[in-house]
Amino acid sequence: MNITIGAIATFLPEPAYTTDCLLDASGGKLSPDLRAMLRRLGVDQRHSILSNYPQVLFEGATPEYSVRGTEMAVRAARRCLAEARCDATELGLVIAATNTPSRLVPGLVSDLFAQMAELPREAMNLSLQGQGCSPLLKAVDTARWYLQANPERRVLLVCMESTTAMSQPLAAPRYLSFKEACTPDEVQRTVDVLHGFLFADGAVALLLQADGPGPAFGPTTHLTNDQPLDAELGHIVGAGSDAPAIQGRPVYKLGPGITERGTFYALDTVRRLLAHPECPIRAADEADQVLIHTGSRKILDGICGRLQLGCGGQQVASSYEVLARHGNLTGASLGFMLADALPRARGPMLLVSFGLSFSGSAGILFPPAEARVA
């Protein structure tokens, strides 16, 4: 049975802030070396659900919302259903993935049902919260299992991130680059700045079904916490039972080994995928397009080099373009790359995601013509 994409739709909040805009708003808080580091992230602009994001980030202003996170997910979902001309009564399962729900409980999937009266009340729901940057292919495999038992039904998958609302206000008088920072507090302040410039907001929805004429998913591979301490590479302090009371916003922690370990997870899942008997390619450069999670330009360059792909070339264009135009959308990144790349797809596509949890996934997607041949 082929698990195919019936439709895919994205939603972005209207406020968009360029890197130059945020650097200008920072005044003299950022050292020259830190400013240069932020320009090398590969992000030209990012969208935010906050209509006053620069003021919130650098002046501690009260956030003003242009749209809420759950509303982004609802709009992407409705666009997806409309594009597919799908009657929502056909849905048997709704999956919602996010690291940044509007509220912890109920989660995003419950709020989708609450705000979308058209969703059938008897449909199953599944929440994939806190899965880092790699929930999409996990959700696809979950949909595959469901559709094998219920081939007459469809699955709605929604990935939403509203990360900018969780950025720390940068209230200190001075912030340094990682190579300039000497104390743990200075390193954490650098991480706070990185969070404010790298991550962004958006939502993507996919309608998944058994067979059909759309792009079809092939084999997938997954890896989670290869080493137990990998779970500590990045996490959020606060808003959990270990730290239920905090001052200010939850704190985003990032370990120095994340680039090295992220590269390992990407390469290991790809290696095992290429060895899969149903994989149509035996090397990454044989793929028509390669979609790699948009961690940062440094991470993209490193993985492309290890996979013997041209950095920034046409084969990986969507990875770099989504990062440049929309920033790191964490769990929604791969969906945005799919929406960007599918119109150009002519052969098997290689999908690669990895991120905090710590987890990684890799998979194959056949464009419509090859899906029909298969």
Q: Calculate the terminal CA-CA distance, rounded to whole Å.
A: 10 Å
Q: Number of DSSP helices?
A: 12
CATH superfamily of the domain at 216-373: Thiolase/Chalcone synthase
Gyration radius, rounded: 20 Å
Q: What is the level-2 CATH architecture name of the domain at 216-373?
A: 3-Layer(aba) Sandwich
Large-scale geometry: globular
Average pLDDT rating? 94
Task: Describe what you observe in this structure.
- This protein has 374 residues and is an alpha+beta fold.
- It is 34% helix and 22% strand.
- The chain is built from twelve helices and 13 strands.
- Helix 4 (69-84) packs across helix 5, helix 8 packs parallel to helix 9 (297-306) and helix 10 (317-326) crosses helix 11 (333-341).
In short:
This protein is α+β, with helices and mostly antiparallel strands and 374 residues long.
Quickly list its features.
single chain, 374 residues, alpha+beta, two-stranded antiparallel sheet, 22% strand
Helices and strands in order:
Layout: E1 3-11, E2 16-18, H1 19-25, H2 32-39, E3 45-47, H3 53-59, H4 69-84, E4 91-98, H5 108-115, E5 124-129, H6 136-149, E6 154-162, H7 184-198, E7 201-210, E8 216-224, E9 234-237, E10 251-254, H8 258-274, E11 289-292, H9 297-306, H10 317-326, H11 333-341, E12 349-355, E13 359-366, H12 368-373
Parallel strand pairs: 4-5, 4-6, 11-12
Antiparallel strand pairs: 1-7, 1-8, 2-3, 6-7, 8-13, 9-10, 12-13
